[in-house]
Fold this protein.
Amino acid sequence: MSKPKQETKTRTGTRTMEFVASLDSKQPSGPIEQRWDKHRFEMKLVNPANRRRYTVIVVGSGLAGGAAAATLGEQGYNVKCFCYQDSPRRAHSIAAQGGINAAKNYRNDGDSIYRLFYDTVKGGDFRARESNVYRLAQVSVNIIDQCVAQGVPFAREYGGYLDNRSFGGAQVSRTFYARGQTGQQLLLGAYQALERQIAAGSVKMFSRTEMLDLVVVDGRARGIITRDMVTGKIERHVADAVVLATGGYGNVFYLSTNAKGCNTTAIWRAHRKGAFFGNPCFTQIHPTCIPVTGDHQSKLTLMSESLRNDGRIWVPKKKGDSRPASQIPEGERDYYLEERYPSFGNLVPRDVASRNAKHVCDQGRGVGSSGLGVYLDFADSIKRLGKPKIVERYGNLFDMYAQITGEDPYETPMRIYPAIHYTMGGLWVDYNLMSTIPGLFVAGEANFSDHGANRLGASALMQGLADGYFVLPYTIANFLAQIKPGGLDTSDAAFAQAEAEVAGRTQKLLKLKGEHTVDSFHRELGKIMWDECGMARNEAGLRKALKRIPELRSEFWENVRVPGEGGELNQELEKAGRVADFLELGELMCMDALTRAESCGGHFREESQTEDGEALRDDENCAFVSAWAFTGNLSKPELHKEPLEFEYVKPSQRSYK
Amino acid sequence: MKLTLKVWRQKNGSTPGELKTYPADHVSPDMSFLEMLDEVNQALIMQGEDPIAFDHDCREGICGMCSLMINGVAHGPKEAITTCQLHMRSFKDGETITIEPWRAKPFPIIKDLVVDRESFDRIIQAGGFISASTGSAPDGNAIPVAKPDADKSMDAAACIGCGACAAACPNGSAMLFTAAKVAHLGHLPQGQAERHQRVVNMVATQDAEGFGNCTNIGECAAVCPKEISLDTIAMLNRDLVIAALKGIEPVVK
Amino acid sequence: MMTGVLTLHRTSVGKKVIMALTGCILVGFVVFHMYGNTKMFMGPDEFNKYAEGLRYLGSPVFGYEHLLWVARLVLIAAVVLHVWSASALVTQSRKATGGMKRYSEHKRHTSYAAYTMRYGGILIFLFIIFHVLHLTFGVVGYAAGQFNHPGGGNYDIYNNVIYGFQNVPISLFYIVTMVFLGFHLFHGVWSMFQTLGLNSATYNTLLRGLAVVVCAVVVVGNISFPVAVLTGVIQPV
């Protein structure tokens, strides 16, 4: 039995900190229901006639960036939007399958803004800021309205009204979806709104352009340095405010469900320029991915979590049992989730399902050639419901699985294994989504806010769009209203210096002509991160990683081989710059994981578990957001802590028994 | 598996390209097509040669970034998938595979297998949207949408904008792409206000970008990884005729 | 300022609409033409009367050959517009794919009919010129004095057709061209509905079927005439 966890008293976490928390979250006071409305009223406005005099740079064109750029453009600001893909429509938000949550309560099943808020705080294992989460739940309803008006073809019922489903174990049906392509459809909505503004001239789009540094002048974010990925030209862009909406950093693990191009460079460069990095060790691992087949593997493919509704997860009871699944009799199968969590069974949350899969594989009971996989078996469901029903529910997923693995999941059970999927950590932001650098805003997966230590299914899309459509347009206006537009051009010394640094770094990479490819370093880093800072972490492993990563980083800077030149399309050079930054971020993640001596959400410290192996939170000492400051020495960053208060949702231990 | 690749190499848009032959000696049937190219590239880098440039990103068939004419077929031999979803078990040991970029005038080659598809964005800019500024929306359930309409809209909205349609079309036409957007928005009540102006603008832009015309051959739909139907083109045509009867002129910015 | 339908020619889709509309007129003509000619199987009197009747169409409201000329002008205009649109579209497509050799192009779906529209179209256009010179004007393919110019109460087109088709190479040319016309119609008739936006998944099979029927009727009907002459089923009188 797990020890009952004592309820945390407010602010207990702050008293034992080594560093005095100096982070002002700027949360409004008052009843939580009124905070956002009150804040919206108190924020300053920019006169419509003056708006075009302000330039806002938006880096990233996914749900958060695309929505923010389009909305700011509609409002009349002069917007410059950047993406590394060949079109803003390709940002990785597009790959989200399941859906988007909103507290519409169209099902009359007891949902409310408060319940969505409550579920998100609890699901995040009490490591998110209540005010932010409440606002997220509040604007969720506007998101659906906006998307419908834009022409997002959400699933409908026969009466013509919006359909909903229950997702990720939620007890209410609040997830809106467009087949298995919800992310794609929401992104196309934002993309179309963005293209409309590009046509109107209010947004200037720079695709195939990568941000390589942030320019800070007099303590304010005033621009960025970019590289045109086609011509190789390094360029300077000046602005009155900069928004980073560049997504997560899951690719630090090399293998993840992220797109190949997803990277940390924009936020990492901003971090080096003074933006604090919040909760870098909070990563989410998704339990239903297709296992790795070999060293050639370049990415992992996620299959919708909905598969766990009808599939049964098992491994052989015997170690190293290499018989085909069909020849293993029922009595020799271990349905370990059903066994261990009788009430939730195969539907336990993502982190629990993932950790248990790792656990059985570590015992040598994993299946498939690599031994890193567990069965997800539909035989019983096919028997019970008939094949046609299964085809109707999961046909496209089964086809996808068959396409990738060459196996027929109707005949043999699927093999699944957890994979890195999302990063809850990111640049620290206050209630206005502004980082510790004035004028630098961070939105979507790139910031740390809202999801705490674990993100609920169908909440990533909600947060990206909330930030982009309904939060940033207000908070950026509030910031801009307090400054004078312009007053600086790209000839400023800070731009020249930042450009020279970027160019120097690029030249250095090209000149090394070492013995190992960029990918080989990335793979090695990924392996270290996955082994030591993945599904389960312990002090010894993290210390090992903290020793190994700086070594690997030096090897990289001595011995990497980047072919070609800088003045052309050079995909290896792009990768090299990104991997160089991952090699720095990886160390910070391990340091954060080491510092957080508790288990919470996606962060499982083996030292902090209950007697029967469940995650054990330490609200006494760890109810804080870690916000890391760059000090110039990568191995000695400075930790600041933002204490977390829970006035409305009292911390409690999650239980799925 | 051992394969021989004939790959289009072109330094940039202003130098002529050619097909070059490379061996791919360590190919596993479990590799994806792009992973096979990754391996070839790793070897090229170690030999001091320039790796093959190709576009890719999500590698799960949804972003639309990957392209490639594989043995003359856009996205390769298997139907209804993108190049990144294609696995090497679809090929035979010893086979020679020809890999070319998308070839159409409005898709100028940037390098090797990478082409510029911004013409597609400009077609969208001409009218591929519903003008609904943030904040102006009524409740999501205020206007019911009949399920068959929502489904048809979704069928068309599945387009990933990869450009396979225009690359496969013997006429170099982008009609399936344009029509998919016209049908996506045209099947929804929210899309009606701009319906006819939209189609007029988008068709005019598509022509101005230098795409060819549609002769209803169907090669586009046959290679479309998202199986967008020719019905969308019929819908575009119908909307354009009605727009012409109404005397709607293109407004192109 | 041109407005409305008159602006159709400006866009690629509009040009296709022009092709569909003119194609519709031409298909109607081809079907009617074939049907009229089947009267040759009913003997010289019926057939010649048909030729005479065409000239009195609309009588007594319309004068001699008036409606026939209207039809001829409409048909000529249709052919001109059809050919003009086609060549403009071909030029546009050439530009779109121009200068780009596709090395290993492998088509998955393209039918022979769809692929050969423009080549079949050229052949059919040349055939029309020949056909008019041959059976309408009698300036090619006949021995001196063999062709009977209709008009002024003299309608011996029955013998004209038979003497015309007794020339084996000419008959073979007709037969071959009709095969190509068949391909052209097979794609063209269905394509017409698609271009006018009258096609959809619901009607696709039906319209494909209709195209097959039209194409089969026209080809079988038209080929039956030279075959009947060459096999001696119908003889000159």
